[in-house]
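quick one, 467 residues, struct below
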Amino acid sequence: MLRFYNNLTGKLEDFEPLEEGKVSIYMCGPTVWNFAHIGNFRSFTFGDILRRYIKFKGYDVTYVMNLTDVDDRIIDESNKKGISIQEMTEPFTVAFNEDMATLGNIKPDIQPKATEHIEEMIEIIQKLLDNGKAYESDGSIYFRISAFPDYGKLSKISFEGNVEGGSQRVDTDKYDKEDARDFALWKLVGEDENPGWDAPFGRGRPGWHIECSAMSMKYLGETFDIHAGGIDLQFPHHENEIAQSEGSTGKLFSKYWLHGEFLKIDNEKMAKSLGNDYTLRDIIGRGFSPLAIRYLLISIPYHRQLNFTFEGLKGAETTIERLQQFRRLVREEKEKGRQGEGEVLSLVEKSLNEFESAMDDNLNTSEALAAIHNLVREVNSTLTEKGLTVEESDAVLNAVETFNSVLGIFGEEQEEILDEEIEKLIEERQEARHKRDFARSDEIRDLLAEKGIILEDTKEGVRWKRK
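---
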């Protein structure tokens, strides 16, 4: 049975979707004012694994990830540059989707932009005004937290006696409001100011929190299965989403709340002041592969903190090469057409069961990876001792495809076809070795390495792989 740790209830729970056979997921996406950093991508890769695994379990999944393309930072930056918010955000939207694809994350089924859903936000705000859970102050609209007794049920934060400037993080804004805890739904904008939108309650622009409520409920309904995001969003963002959504509908907003934990860099918090807020492009620029980065991001379960190090990345590179080489060797073994008893079949079944059991347990990716590595080690031992039958090879390759469909760490398998020039060079090297002309043999090896071809001399002959 698939189980998740539900931050709303504080318990590990069996997953039971609202509608049989279908699952609705909303993941808080990026604010497209700059390139996303590697900590952001830990959350988004967790969302990708979540979506992939639920689909693997046989559900029809609708996965929504929003783009925040209007907020104070975007407006400030666009004003500094003298450009519109659309001109400011569009390049970073393109870059984000490119980075997601580079990292192997499947594009969301729906990727709504905040600026395209202002009408839905206005409708929610009007409902809150009508039922007394929101009020106007100096032209801006605020959510009245005192009118929502369940406020704090997600973050488990007590707000008793909390005042502006106190220890708890609150949205103080720059406008007057009844209570320091109240947060802005709609911010007053002057007639000559941009961006701004007309609404029955005055020209303005949305607060950040209302954006996600409007987009999630439009595409997934007033109540949906899973709301996910980074742990940094739990309060106040997700807490405020619950208040304004349930305050407007009177219904449960999301049944399950899943949060990805923080990523640290060399045991330090990621921060611009420390110069360690790396983007995906920064890390790839250092020579690391996207697959290795993805592997490291999922090597620790999403709900535990991950310490991201470049030494760890080097280890991930080696692991990815080993996994790809394993798949290639099994593919080559299959082509030999061996027949016989399928002793490896039970190992494959055991590995698949262990993999699924680990993923069923709140997406325990570290245990799932351990199941994969155990199979690789045992099959490699069999390969060395006596080889695999065609049936065994097929079973192993199918298992690899299953693992890859969920975790995406093996990469796409490409046909390894050498062109004529490289084939001739390998043949020439073999001939040079036969003649004991080791100088020429080494020269050809170096030449092939420059072309990205790595040779491995084994007792069964020469094997090769691309860098």
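The chain is about 45% helix and 15% strand.
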